[in-house]
C-alpha cells in the first residue's frame, strides 16, 4: 500500500501519524531467502530497528554474556529495584534478522518502568539454524536462569516471531515438568504458521510494515523455519497447543496488524484452557509499535506491561 493511501483515525497522536507515514514495509520474504540479497535485507531491517534506540531518553546499560553456551545480552536500567524477578527476552525479526541489541528498544522501556532487569537470547537466525534450534537455545538459557542460585522468578517476553519461540518453549516446559515461568508477555505475536487468522485478509495493506498476501507469506516463512514439519504442529505454531497450566499472560497488539487475529485467538484459547490471559489492543497501532518510545501510545503500552509485572 502506498504511503499516501494510509488513512488514519483522528484519535492517533500527531507523533504516531508522523511515524506511520515514515515507516517502510519490510523486505519481501524472497529477499530474505535469497543468499545474494539476504545480507542487504538484514542490514536494512536492523538499521531501522537500531534507529529506535535514539528515542530512549533514560540511562541504560547492555552487556554481552554467555549463558549455558548461548550468547545473550543483559539489560540494566537505573530504576532496577526488584531482584526477585528477571525478564527473559526473545526478540522478533522473522527469524531472519534482529538481535537482543538491535531490538533493545522493545525491552528497555519495560525494564525502566517495572524496575526489573532482563536477559535477551541471541538465538541463531535462519538459515544458519532451523527448527527447533531456536527453541533449544531459549530452553537452555531459561533452565540456567532457574538454577543459578538466585531463586529469581522468570517472566518470559517475546515479540513477533519471538512470541512463537517463547510459547513453544513454555509448551515444552509444561510437558516436561519444568517449572513454568511466573508470567508471559507477548507483543505482536506471530503464533500461527498456517496463516489462518482472518486479519491476514481484512488488515492486509493496513499494517505499514508487514504484507501478508492472505497468509501466504506466513506459511512460506514458517515452512522455511521448519521444513518438513506440519504447520499445525504446536511446537512450530503454538496457537494449536493446549495451554492448560500456563501462567498469567498479557498479549499486546495494534489494531492495524495482520497478526491481530493470532493474538485474539491465542488469548481466547488460553482462557478456555483455564489460563489467566489478557489481550490489549491499541487503536491505530502497527506491528512492533512498542519499539518507538517517543510515541504516547508506546509509553502507555509499556506502562501497562510494567503494571502487569508489578502485580506479580
UniProtKB/TrEMBL annotation:
It holds the Pfam family Abhydrolase_3. Residues 87-291 form the Alpha/beta hydrolase fold-3 domain. Belongs to the 'GDXG' lipolytic enzyme family. Coiled coil: none annotated. GO terms for molecular function: triacylglycerol lipase activity. Keywords: Hydrolase. InterPro entries: AB_hydrolase_3, AB_hydrolase_fold, GDXG_lipolytic_enzyme. This is Alpha/beta hydrolase fold domain-containing protein.
Amino acid at each position: 500500500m502506498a504511503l499516501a493511501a494510509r488513512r488514519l483515525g483522528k484519535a492517533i497522536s500527531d507523533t504516531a501519524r508522523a511515524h506511520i507515514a515514515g515507516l517502510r514495509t519490510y523486505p519481501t520474504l524472497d529477499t530474505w531467502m535469497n543468499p545474494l540479497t539476504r545480507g542487504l535485507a538484514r542490514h536494512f531491517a536492523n538499521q531501522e530497528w537500531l534507529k529506535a534506540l535514539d528515542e530512549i531518553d533514560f540511562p541504560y546499560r547492555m552487556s554481552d554474556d554467555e549463558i549455558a553456551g548461548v550468547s545473550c545480552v543483559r539489560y540494566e536500567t537505573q530504576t532496577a529495584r526488584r531482584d526477585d524477578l528477571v525478564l527473559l527476552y526473545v526478540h522478533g525479526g522473522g527469524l531472519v534478522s534482529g538481535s537482543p541489541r538491535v531490538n533493545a528498544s522493545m525491552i528497555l522501556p519495560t525494564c525502566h518502568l517495572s524496575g526489573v532487569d532482563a536477559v535477551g537470547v541471541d538465538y541463531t537466525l535462519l538459515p544458519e539454524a532451523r527448527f527447533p534450534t531456536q527453541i533449544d537455545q531459549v530452553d537452555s538459557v531459561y533452565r540456567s536462569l532457574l538454577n543459578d542460585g538466585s531463586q529469581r522468578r522468570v517472566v518470559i517476553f517475546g515479540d513477533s516471531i519471538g512470541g512463537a519461540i517463547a510459547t513453544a518453549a513454555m509448551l515444552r516446559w509444561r510437558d516436561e515438568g519444568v517449572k513454568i515461568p511466573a508470567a508471559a508477555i507477548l507483543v505482536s505475536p506471530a503464533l500461527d504458521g498456517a496463516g489462518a487468522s482472518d486479519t491476514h485478509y481484512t488488515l492486509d495493506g493496513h499494517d505499514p510494515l508487514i504484507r501478508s498476501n492472505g497468509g501466504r507469506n506466513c506459511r512460506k516463512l514458517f515452512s522455511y523455519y521448519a521444513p518438513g514439519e506440519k504447520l499445525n504442529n504446536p511446537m512450530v505454531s503454538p496457537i494449536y497447543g493446549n495451554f492448560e497450566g500456563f501462567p498469567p499472560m498479557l498479549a499486546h497488539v495494534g489494531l492495524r496488524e495482520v497478526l491481530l487475529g493470532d493474538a485474539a485467538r491465542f488469548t481466547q484459547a488460553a482462557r478456555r484452557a483455564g489460563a489467566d490471559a489478557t489481550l490489549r489492543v491499541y487503536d491505530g497501532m502497527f506491528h512492533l509499535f512498542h519499539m518507538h518510545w517517543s510515541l504516547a501510545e508506546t509509553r502507555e503500552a509499556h506502562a501497562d506491561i510494567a503494571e502487569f509485572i508489578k502485580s506479580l
